[in-house]
Amino acid sequence: VQLVESGGGLVQPGASLRLSCAASGFTFGAYAMSWFRQAPGKGREWVAAINSGGGSTNSADSVRGRFTTPRDNAKNTLHQQMNSLRPEDTAVYYCETYRASCGPAWGQGTQVTVSS
Question: What is the DSSP string of 44-100?
């Protein structure tokens, strides 16, 4: 399993970013996917999830209404569209998939910094 995140950067409050997670080494379209984040000095926090077919999503209260989590199963890619970014969204963002036979698999993360 390989997950590679991209799209992070430094933006001002109120800006938008679109993260991507390129997946390989497993049948991407058969598994739910999630985004997590980890802010400096804090534990890893669940952000959002999408089911295997892409028809059902859920997200943490802190991002609901600002973040969406589409996926493209034809391209084995997960996205996270982040709008109205706030300084408290600053973190390293990770995509994750869980398989019962292997447990969770993570990417290396992409840094998002929201600062004026």
Answer: EEEEEEE-TTSS-EEE-TTTTTTEE--EETTTTEEEEEE-S--GGG-EEEEEEEEET
d(C-alpha 73, C-alpha 51), whole Å: 11
Of residues 18, 5, 4, the one with CA closest to residue 69: 18
CA dist 20 → 84, 108, 114 (Å): 18, 12, 18
Query: Tens digits of per-residue pLDDT, 51-96?
Result: 999 899 999 999 999 999 999 999 999 999 999 999 999 999 999 9
Report which of 108, 72, 80, 104 is spatially closest to residue 92, judged by C-alpha positions: 108
Q: How confident is the model at residue 115 (pLDDT cuts 50, 70, 90)?
A: very high
Q: How many contiguous H segments (helices) and E segments (strands) does the chain have?
A: 0, 12
* Burial class of residue 34 (count of CB atoms within 10 Å of its CB; 0-12, 13-18, 19+): buried
Kindly report the backbone phi and psi dihedral angles of residue 89, in degrees, each rounded to the nearest multiple of 5, phi listed first: -85, -5
